């Protein structure tokens, strides 16, 4: 079963785990925390959004291979993303696109997620018009990357060229690659053949090989130290006093006002797109910006994240009228 290279959603909570593990996102001295957070977040998740909408289609022979390759690419791009302060999804996507193209086995036509008799390699003749086939570049099997030193060299050379990390000793990058390969297999084993789309933050602590990769990378490159464990002595906890009703009401009112304000802003944007007769590219650009906003929202702003997610659903259906109606209703309260 052929699977496209867009499965990176299971990495979304890894940034939060890294922050918990080290107390903050590690990084180079002089780099502000926000830049560190954006860089590591984009490194871990950029393949999902970019290759869904913009990049070439890279194909794997199995769901497990797609899981492993996506995790590997996310882990191996942490270092260059943080060193070069890369916080733009498209920029990371273009570089990863250039890297994967150099290691792909060739162009194929395939039937998405259906069992077919695949012809691997470059096909010179386009498929017949009646066949519902897609075009993509086949990536090597993950097991081959794990065992073949020549393919490992090819991957590291492609990474160094695409991400400008030739100043790092190749043997050090090779060490990170070996650890990342082990970590990717561990994550894939947890996700299973059915492909869980999500890993809770607390689960990452159980991944020994993933944690070994993180500790090695962040210790050697950014001098990170794990946050010390809290002592387990028995404490007498005071029962927190409940907030007064008027405080709760004020907080709810402030949050609702914030959502109405944001809905009104987005409504103006959607109306502008309607008037301009916006095409698919403009809608995809807006969707990308909304995903970035979702990543920035914290637990206290789940309603706001829901607003963005609902709007994304309308954009994917190219339903600007539905989006306009939805935002208008939310803006009125």
Average pLDDT level: 78
Structural class: mainly alpha
Question: What pattern of helices and strands is seen along the backbone?
Answer: EHHEHHHEEHHHHHHHH
How many domain modules?
Answer: 2
Major sheet description: 4 strands, mixed
Low-confidence stretches: 113-125, 231-235, 246-254
Give the tally of β-strands.
4
Q: Helical element count?
A: 13
Q: Oligomerization state of this entry?
A: single chain
Tell me the overall shape. globular
Radius of gyration: 22 Å
Strand content: under 5%
The CA-CA distance between the termini, in Å, is 47 Å
* Order of strands in the sheet with most strands: 1-2-4-3
Helical percentage: 55-70%
Could you characterize the architecture of this molecule?
- With 333 residues, this protein is mainly alpha-helical.
- It has two domains: 3-222, no CATH class; 245-332.
- It is built from 13 helices and four strands.
- A four-stranded mixed sheet has the order 1-2-4-3.
- It starts with a strand and ends with a helix.
- Mean pLDDT is 78; it is low at 113-125, 231-235 and 246-254.
């Amino acid at each position: 079963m052929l699977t496209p290279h867009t499965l990176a959603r299971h990495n979304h909570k890894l940034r939060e785990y890294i922050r918990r593990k080290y107390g903050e996102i590690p990084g180079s001295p002089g780099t502000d925390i926000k830049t560190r957070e954006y860089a590591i977040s984009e490194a871990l998740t950029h393949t999902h959004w970019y290759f869904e909408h913009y990049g070439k289609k890279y194909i794997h022979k199995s769901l497990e291979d797609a899981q492993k390759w996506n995790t590997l690419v996310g882990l191996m791009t942490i270092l260059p993303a943080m060193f070069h302060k890369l916080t733009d999804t498209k920029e990371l996507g273009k570089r990863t696109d250039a890297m994967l193209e150099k290691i792909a086995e060739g162009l194929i036509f395939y039937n998405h997620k259906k069992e077919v008799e695949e012809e691997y390699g470059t096909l010179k003749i386009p498929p017949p018009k009646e066949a519902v086939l897609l075009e993509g570049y086949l990536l090597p099997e993950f097991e081959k990357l794990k065992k073949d030193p020549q393919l490992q060299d090819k991957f590291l050379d492609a990474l160094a060229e695409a991400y400008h990390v030739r100043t790092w000793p190749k043997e050090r990058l090779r060490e990170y690659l070996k650890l990342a390969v082990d970590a990717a297999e561990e994550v894939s084993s947890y996700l299973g053949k059915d492909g869980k789309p999500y890993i809770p933050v607390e689960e990452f602590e159980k991944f020994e090989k993933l944690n070994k990769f993180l500790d090695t990378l962040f210790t050697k490159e950014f001098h990170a130290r794990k946050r010390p464990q809290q002592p387990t002595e028995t404490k007498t906890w005071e029962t927190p006093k409940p907030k007064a009703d008027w405080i709760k009401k004020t907080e709810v009112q402030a949050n609702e006002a914030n959502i109405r304000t944001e809905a009104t802003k987005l409504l103006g944007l959607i109306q502008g797109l309607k008037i301009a007769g916006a095409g698919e590219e403009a809608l995809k650009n807006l969707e990308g910006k909304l995903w970035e906003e979702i990543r920035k929202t914290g637990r206290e702003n789940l309603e706001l994240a829901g607003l963005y997610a609902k709007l994304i659903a309308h954009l994917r259906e190219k339903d600007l009228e539905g989006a306009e109606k939805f935002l208008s209703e939310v803006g009125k309260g």
